[in-house]
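Repro:
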Amino acid sequence: MTEAKQPVFSMTGFARIAGRVSETLGFSLSLKSVNHRFLDLHMRLPQGTEGIEIQLRRILKEKLRRGHVEVTLNLERSQKAEAGYDHALVAAYVEAFRAAAAEHRLTAEPDLNSVFRLPGVLMAESRNSEEELRGLEEAVLRESDALVAALETMRAQEGSVLANELRAGMSRLRELVDEAALLREKVQQAYFERLSQRMKAMLDGGFDQDRILQEAALIAERSDVEEEVTRLRTHIDHFTGLLDQGGEVGKKLDFLLQEMNREANTLLSKTSGVAGNGTRITEAGLGMKSEIEKAREQVQNLE
């Protein structure tokens, strides 16, 4: 049975879910990812939810491979919860105020407006209770798999678009390489004739003509671009094969593009200064470099 190929994932994506812990407490959890060399998790969670953060880090490290991922958890309390206050804490503040007043023989009474501004008095300012934290953790982790799946779906869709663009770029690159291959023999012959004429002119018949032709042929052979054309074709085949294979291919594709760029540079250096078809090969080589650079920019966003 043929193994199903894996999708190619972009590192760009977004997903969000919302849920409720109770009638008075809801939450929203979002994931936003962009490209990065490694997996870089940036957590934005409310104070007191360290346990949830640890669990989310573990889940995301199991599911994702690369990308800068921002994880944001927001809590949403109903109006009822916001209107509540910590009765025990208010009583303690009032008792402390009256004790201090009696100690210093003052007749002042505590001001409730001032008391409600003290840390932790209003429910909206208080820390989450242990029961709420347990419920929040259960609810968030229950939804986490669906959230990551939604992010991966978007990343796969973006990756499919990028893969198609890269295949089109490789097709254009192959056309330019094939053009250079067709022109190669004519360029080599022109280069040989040019060298022969220059060497004859410089030596003015003072040396063996056959030896001159041999030296010219050797130099012309060194300027041949056949090896560069062959390597470029091999790299293009490998590149498209990796795209078809899918999975975590971004770094491998980037390495192949670096190799392609090196071959294109060598091809250009060998054909510089040769008139006629040499100029056309130079133009093809510049086109190769342009396609390679476009592909490198796109590959940076692949997982």
